[in-house]
Design brief:
The complex is a heterotrimer. By secondary structure, chain A is mainly β. Chain A has one domain: Alpha-Beta Plaits, CATH 3.30.70. Helices cover about 10% and strands about 20% of the residues of chain A. Chain A starts with 19 loop residues before the first strand and ends with a strand. The relative contact order of chain A is 0.25. Helix content of chain B is about 40%, strand content about 20%. In chain B, helix 13 links the parallel strand 15 and strand 16. In chain B, helix 1 packs across helix 2. By secondary structure, chain C is α/β, with parallel strands linked by helices. Helix content of chain C is about 40%, strand content about 20%. Chain C contains 7 helices and 6 strands. In chain C, strand 4, helix 2 and strand 5 form a beta-alpha-beta unit. Chain C starts with 5 loop residues before the first strand and ends with a helix. Chains in contact: A-B, B-C.
Chain lengths: ~100, ~400, ~190
């Protein structure tokens, strides 16, 4: 149980109509319940970005390279829930993402 | 001689459906989504003609069912539009789960509802089973005695709903009101538009600068607080309803409140009733008063929120009360209006009045003056201590044996 | 029921315009400064089926919304209904029946088994054929009803019917004239 329990909003404080502000995932480490983790191999990756577009949680990190092109830069383990879609979608010939048991 | 209540008012001969469509045209909501069902069909049929003719700029969404009608209305309202729909009977039933979503999301949707019995067996005529079934959905419910009230109520409901952030339905009796042509005073378009004003939602989904999530999961830790909020909002709607009625009276000259009292203040016997039948009851009371019988009427207009405290105050002095329900709860105990009235009296420790329960007019069964007279006779006998009165629901004008 | 209130029941067959007649009657009477109600009987709709519609007219606002049980006037658009429908239901001794028929008052009174003093006849179908060119008896019967009630303003009614029909048939002035002529003719011809 988190210590925030006693900080929960009251009916008077809650926004009406069940509105939840957008972008609040940034406040939480939603990757904490992961049982498997994807491991990215920088040398194999060709930055086709299929994993990036497939990830339901936006956990594939990308950056601009010197040519101004987006390239994969790693995996955001704070958000990644270990669904494995990135590994599945990574082109077979490349196999730049492997799935491993979570080490905790 | 016929007079208008409002200096710029216009007397017209219109049916309840026609005048409801007229109000919708004047309010000119951004979106109307509906599916036709007797006896409410004409409302959206006439309104869709206004749209086709270009007399309103509203977006009319012809959908494939009532479930879709209310879903589209909810979506439009969540997106920030002033959204309305109309239905009846089975149509309202098919909307069921979405009614709770409309109120839970606090969307100020307006519904023009025409009261009709519920199948089976199939019946298209008036009773209140449909809206009474929806009494605990978190919608504001306003009932109309005649076409004039239906017109005035839908105009007021628009303001009430948007201020209270709650959906509201305005009901009138199927065929008895919806298809009866009578004299109605309508107001100029500009004045109705000025009264309802422009709808400016605080938050809406199409506001791309302030995005938010709507309809998220809400479990043990927060759901209860949200439902408590909803229940409080319905309570708080009471003041809003009175404020809007006050402004309506100042603007258009007609007086409205939670309920109408007719000869009630000094009444010894009284009937509590909702809808078109109240007119007949008033007519009977007028005659009884001429004979010296102290009869009165309390006609409920706003059923949700239920004006419990006010009703208790106005009924406390009455010796014997008959609560007339036009729907049955099939609960093995008592129908809805009776339950609300008696619970209100009991919780306020007002135990003086004897309260009798009657069910009438189911499926459009004729309810006429003779039956009203008979109820008042019974009330008079109970008041005089002459009659051992029934502690159970009495059914009027049904062949039992 | 207020003594001043007049209650009317129309009998017709689906398609003959019993509902339209009640609505048109109400609208035109309202334009002469009286309160009105017009409502149909609600049931399955099909051509030729016996149908009813109703009117209330009164100097005072009308607050009752129950059905009409004891009509002051019964208007019968189709004389064949006399045989098949209880058209005199609820009629008391002061009630009057107006029938579209070529029969005499005594013949109709005998068929209906009521006093001859309660019966009025007019050949509205013939009048409609002569004036409108079609057997649509509802508008001429409106003229006959105004005459029999006696307290209504026929000129006001004609004026208001004209205004109303002009909107609907503004490209067919012949229809408007025909309808007005039919009302006048029935008003003059209806006899007791």
């Amino acid at each position: 149980m988190r210590k925030e329990e006693n900080k929960k909003l009251t009916a008077a404080e809650l926004p009406v109509g069940g509105i939840v502000e957008a972008g609040t995932a940034i406040n939480f480490h939603t990757g904490s319940w992961r049982s498997q983790r994807p491991v990215w191999n920088k040398d194999k990756c060709i930055s086709c970005l299929i994993c990036w577009i497939s990830c339901p949680d936006g956990s594939i990190k990308i950056v601009l390279n010197e040519k101004g092109t987006s390239v994969v830069n790693g995996i955001d383990y704070d958000k990644c829930k270990g669904c494995g879609i990135c590994a599945k979608e990574c082109p077979t010939k490349i196999s730049a993402i492997a799935i491993e048991q979570e080490r905790k | 001689m016929m007079k208008t209540a409002y200096s710029k008012g216009n007397l017209v001969a219109k049916t309840g459906n026609e005048v409801m469509a007229e109000a919708l045209r004047q309010i000119e909501p951004d979106v109307v989504a509906a599916y036709p069902i007797t006896p409410a069909t004409e409302i959206v049929q006439i309104f869709s003609q206004f749209v086709a003719d270009g007399t309103v700029k509203s977006e009319y969404v012809a959908v494939e069912s009532e479930h879709s009608a209310i879903s589209a209305t909810i979506a439009a309202s969540a997106a920030g539009a002033r959204a309305m729909t109309s239905t009846s009977s089975q149509g309202l039933c098919l909307m069921w789960e979405m009614l709770y979503i409309a109120s839970g999301l606090r969307l100020p949707i307006i519904m023009a509802e025409v009261n009709r019995a519920i199948s089976a067996p199939i019946n298209i005529n008036a009773d209140h089973s449909d809206t009474m079934g929806a009494r605990d959905t978190g919608w504001i419910q306003i009932y109309s005695e005649n076409s004039q009230e239906a017109y005035d109520n839908i105009i007021q409901a628009t303001r009430i709903a948007e201020k209270a952030k709650l959906p509201a339905l305005v009901a009138m009796d199927g065929f008895i009101t919806s298809h009866c042509m009578e004299v109605v005073e309508t107001y100029p378009d500009a004045d109705v538009k000025a009264f309802v004003g422009e709808y400016k939602p605080e938050r809406y989904l199409l506001d791309v600068k302030r995005p938010y999530t709507l309809g998220s999961i809400d479990l043990q830790d927060y759901y209860f607080e949200h439902r408590y909020q909803l229940a409080q909002a319905v309570i708080d709607a009471r003041d809003i309803i009175l404020d809007v009625a006050e402004e309506f009276k100042r603007t258009f000259g007609r007086e409205y409140s939670f309920y109408e009292k007719y000869m009630l203040d000094d009444a010894e016997v009284a009937i509590v009733i909702i809808g078109s039948a109240a007119g007949n009851v008033k007519a009977v009371v007028k005659e009884l008063r001429e004979k010296g019988i102290k009869a009165g009427v309390l006609k409920i207009r706003v059923y949700r929120p239920f004006p419990a405290k006010q009703i208790v105050k106005d009924l406390a002095h009455v010796k014997v009360i008959a609560v007339m329900d036009r729907s049955d709860s099939c609960s093995g105990a008592f129908p809805p209006v009776y339950s609300d009235v008696t619970a209100s009296l009991y919780s306020a420790r007002v135990l003086g009045p004897k309260v009798l329960s009657y069910i009438y007019g189911i499926g459009g069964r004729e309810f006429c003056d003779e039956q009203v007279v008979k109820v008042y006779e019974t009330l008079g006998e109970v008041a005089a201590g002459l009659e051992k009165y029934s502690r159970e629901v009495e059914y009027i004008n049904v062949r039992i044996k | 029921m207020s003594a001043k209130m007049i209650e009317i029941r129309w009998h017709g067959r689906g398609g003959q315009g019993a509902k339209t007649a009640a609505l048109l009657f109400a609208e035109t009477i309202m334009a002469t400064g009286m309160y009105i109600q017009a409502f149909p009987e609600y049931g399955p709709e099909r051509m030729g089926a016996p149908v009813q519609s109703f009117n209330r007219i009164s100097e005072d606002p009308i607050i009752i919304h129950s059905g009409i049980k004891v009509p002051n006037y019964v208007v019968i658009l189709d004389s064949s209904l006399i045989e098949s429908v209880p058209v005199t239901d609820g009629l008391d001794k002061s009630g009057k029946v107006i029938v579209n028929t070529s029969l005499s008052t005594s013949e109709v009174a005998e068929k209906l088994d009521i006093s001859i003093n309660q019966v009025y006849v007019v050949n509205a179908s013939r009048i409609a054929l002569e004036t409108i060119g079609k057997d649509i008896p509802n508008t001429p019967m409106l003229g006959a009803l105004v005459k029999v009630i006696g307290t209504l303003d026929i000129d006001g009614v004609l004026k208001n019917v004209k205004t109303k029909l002009m909107v609907k048939f503004r490209h067919k002035p012949g229809i408007v004239e025909g309808n007005l002529a039919s009302i006048k003719m029935a008003f003059n011809e209806v006899k007791s």
